[in-house]
Amino acid sequence: MLHFKYSSLINAPVEVVWNFHERPDILQQLTPPWQPVEIVRREGGLEVGAISEFKIFLGPIPVPWLARHTVCEPYQLFIDEQVEGPMEQWIHRHEFIAENGKTRLIDAIDYAIPGGWVPDLMLGWFVDARLRDMFRYRHEVTQRECSL
Q: Which residues contact 100 (CB under 8 A, 6 or more apart)?
């Protein structure tokens, strides 16, 4: 199992950052323009049972990705898990922590690449770099949209 974590301090209260993540168009807002992703649907907001469905493109090949929210503690955290997709396992924890009127936004992902420890060892660095690029973008957008 591989682990990824990205954290930043957003210049806005937790309620503002949480409410931004509840927007119906949040997936469009947070998807980097260079990322080959098609958003198929989003149902249910952030609550348990909510789903997000995408097609990601590995070169010309579309790969379905379906994630379901398994935990939701309003204004604190929500967790989504891959139900169908390219990873052996994918658990994404989104945390919102109040810090002196601002919000510590933390994205933590536990994941496994199909095929066991050899692909994890050979490709983990690549996936980590792509995740770092994506979450840097997402946190920058969140900062811009939520800052007071």
A: none
Label residue 118 exposed, middle or buried (CB < 10 Å: 0-12, 13-18, 19+).
exposed
β-strands 2-10, 102-112 pairing: antiparallel
Tokens of residue 34, six digits: 């260079």
pTM, to two decimals:
0.93
Q: What are phi and psi of 57, to 5 degrees?
A: -110, 120
pLDDT, one tens digit per residue, over 93-136 is 999 999 999 999 999 999 999 998 888 888 889 999 999 999 99
Do residues 16 and 146 make contact, with C-beta atoms less than 8 angstroms apart? yes
The stretches of 14-116 forming alpha helices (DSSP H) are 14-21, 26-30
Nearby residues of 9 by Cβ (< 8 Å), 6 or more positions away: 99, 102, 103, 104, 105
